[in-house]
Amino acid sequence: MKYKMIVTDLDDTLLNSQGKVSDKDKESIMKAQENGVIFVLASGRPTYAMRDLAQELKLDKFGSFILSYNGSIITNCKTGKNILEETLTKDEIHLLYDFSKNNNVEIITYLDDSIISEDYSSYIEVEVELTKMPFEKVKNFKAVVDKDCVKCIMLEEPEYLKQVEKKLNSELGNQFSIAISKPFFLEVTKLGVDKGSSLLKLANKLGIQQDEIIVVGDSYNDIPMLKVAGMPTCVENAKPEIKNICKFISTSNNNNGMTKIIENLIFKK
């Protein structure tokens, strides 16, 4: 099988514990792109927080793509243009805000390349550090969020957040796509939007078949794209539920996991 596309999650998958791509993995990614493989960064992160890495990996030079906000936006790195953009309406975001308040969890959204919330905590600080985006603490979330936005995240202690996830799915699961990414991040996007559905739209646009796609992940929000890939793979540090649906398990994100995937699935004779 000749694979034409590699799609990878970022945090705890492509990126090591220092938030970097190892030199060895970077070299392997370059080699794959030089041989015509399209490389896609697929993350819950905002586009803003993925641009530097896309430049570092020369995705613009090779015509590769960013799939950000859990699939809500797809960006062609060569042109810098979005080829897909799915948003939550202002009213939907306000509904999620009300749910968060009723269930004692923090909520953030993204407005004009800034993170918006009425709260600030160690969990929100993680997102600010990961994305390097400006943070704006506001007094009235609904008043400030006066237009459509791409997604929301609810944040709280992991065990409690699992309970909130169940309740959110029960009450509003028919209105939104809902997934835990990091244990303390509950991500909400437009109904029907996830990494898998958006990946299929991109592949269809490029004339790439599902069995020509390698996907690499580690966590729950990667499940939709792992399920649509011909070759679902994961890093060794992935959650057990993720390993159970993968055909190839690589080394960890701290041990050049991407290189092993590329060497074994792209270049192995």
Automatic annotation (TrEMBL):
It comes from the Bacteria. GO terms for cellular component: cytosol. It holds the Pfam family Hydrolase_3. InterPro entries: Cof (IPR000150), HAD-like_sf (IPR036412), HAD-SF_hydro_IIB (IPR006379), HAD_sf (IPR023214). GO terms for molecular function: magnesium ion binding; phosphatase activity. This is Cof-like hydrolase.
